[in-house]
Amino acid sequence: MNRKNSIIFIIVIVVLIPSFGWLIWNEFGRVENDFQKQIESSVPKNYSASGKAIPPQPQATSNASVPSDKTPAPVEETPMEKLESEGEEKKTDATQDWKTYQDTKDKFEFKYPPAAQVSDNGDFIAISQEDKTWKIRIYNNKKKEELEAWFNGYFDEKERVNCAFSESTVKVGTYETKYINPNSKETACELDGYYSANTEKTKVVKVKIGKETAENVNKILETFKFD
To answer: What is the pLDDT of residues 150-178, one digit of tens each?
Structure first.
C-alpha cells in the first residue's frame, strides 16, 4: 500500500468509526427503553417498577357539602331568650282569666280584669277599676288621612287651638299613638288624650287615661284589636 492509499484508508476509518459507534449506541438505548416500558406495563399501578408497594395518596377534598344523615342537635335558648319566652308566657297567663269586651258597632275588642267595670256611654267606653275611670272613644276616618291631618280636619280651630302633638310610649294594641296635650301650662286642651289610627286608617282610637296610671292602662290596651 502506497502512501496515498494509506492516507485515504486512515481518513475512512476516522469518519466511519464514530458514525458506526453512534448508530450502535442509539440502537442500544432504544432497545433498553422498550424493555423498561414492558416492565412498567406489567407492574400494577400501586407498585413501583422495583416491586415495592406505593402508599395510597390522599384524595383532594371538594368544597361541596356532603349530605349527612345525622340530625342536627337542637339549639339551646340563651338565658335572655328564656327570660323573654317566660315573660310572654306570664303575659298570656295574666290575661287568661280576663273578660273580653266586644263592640259590634265599631268592630273592636279588648280584655279587662274581672274586677274592672266596663260600660258603653254612647260616645265612649268607660273602664272603671279601683275608683279610677278612663275612656276609649272611636272616630271615623272616612278620608283615610294621616293622624295629624285627620285631627286638624275633624276638629275646628277653636277646639284644637291650645292643643299640640307629641310623641307617646302608650300603645293601642300594636298601634303607636300620638299624645295630644296642652301647648302650655297656662292653657287647657279639651281634646287631650292618646290617639292612634288602625292599619287601614279607617278608624281613630282615642284613649283618655284620667286618674289611672299608664302602666295599668297599658295592660288592657295591649289586648286591644280591631276585627
So the answer is: 999 999 999 999 999 999 988 999 999 99
